[in-house]
Structures are given as C-alpha cells and as structure tokens.
Amino acid sequence: MAKEVSTLTVTERTATGKGPNRRLRMQGIVPGVYYDQHGTNVMVQVPEVPLRKVYAKVGGTQVFHLEIDRNGKKDTFPALVWRMKHDPVRPIVTHVDFFGVDLDKDIKVFVNVVTTGTPKGLQLGGKLDIFRDQLEVNCKPLSIPEHIEIDVTDLDVNDNVHIEDIKLPEGVEALYEENFAVLGVTPIVETSLEDEEAEAEAETAEADETEAE
Q1: Does residue 184 contact residue 155 with C-beta atoms inside 8 Å?
Q2: Phi and psi, residue 176, nearest 5°
Q3: What is the CATH number of the domain that holds 76?
Q4: Do 16 and 89 reside in the same domain of the chain?
C-alpha cells in the first residue's frame, strides 16, 4: 500500500525583517524559508495551525507535498520540515525551514529510536539505558522510516543492542564507522550512605583546593 503523503500550502513572502515577521506572528502566521538541493531559497509564510497539523503527521523525517503559492501560481515540491523554532516563553512557532528533496536520490537523515517490550533484566536489578536516541540512515526520501523500533524484551543485565544488530527496512542503510551500542540493560549500582558522604567530602575538598589556587 502506498504511503499517504500530506500537503501543506504556503505563500511566498515578500516583506522581510523583524517588523514584518513580528506582525505575521501576531496574526498566527509563521515566516519561513524553502530551500532546495540546487541552492534556491524561497521566502514563505504559512498559518501556524495547518503547519502544526502537518508536522504532527510527518515530523522531521517524512516527505510531504509543499505547495508554494506565488501570486496565484502554485508549484508543488516534495519536501521535509528541516527546522522549526519555538518561542522560549509563549507556545508559538516563530520560524520554519523546509528542505526540498529529490525522490530519486538518497538522503541522509536522523531517525528516532523507539523500544517495544520490557527487558527481562529489569526484574534482575537492571535498568534500560538508551545510548543513542537517534540513528543516521541513508535512503530514498519516501523510504525514510517514521522511527526505528527495537524489541528489548529478551535483554538481560549487561546485554546491549549494537547498530549491526538492528534490522532496517529494505533500502534503508545505517551510517556508522564503529559497531556502537545503541541501548542496553545496565546493572543498578546502589550507593550507600557512607559512599555518598565520602563523595560529598571529596567534592568539598576539591572545591577548597580550587579556591585556594
């Protein structure tokens, strides 16, 4: 079954700068830029509500149709949401960048890691540690997985899942130089009160030496 592709319509933006962008945000419109692989940049603007709806479906890894309206003339491009910036105080999007892709060419992207199951090692005094929450892969844009799923049910204490252990969808290649551990079940080290007091004393002594210098 072919993957359903979402569509987002944006409008070309002519006014730039802090003043015009601030006025757009006050109207619930997000300023942004569309970049393609050939170095073309198009200043755009998009209502925040449909932007959020599409982003909830595609995130930063799924291809969607970006329809750019330039004075009534509409062109559609396959694209990814490259970056979304948020206001540090208010719950609004302040800027968005789109990246145009060639559906016939491989692209390198980072995909989130998710786990399924409960490691059996948790009952034996272990805890699940995720060392890499994203993995870099290389594939065609429409083949980018929504996430990389790892079943951790059979993991015992001191068991790790390495990058070479992960089975990826057909056409998707993990990029790495060393066979690093993606996640594992590590033993929980209990710290006694005496150990904590000794550690605190060591930190205090180190701080005193630093002040003396």
Answers
A1: yes
A2: -165, 160
A3: 2.40.240.10
A4: yes
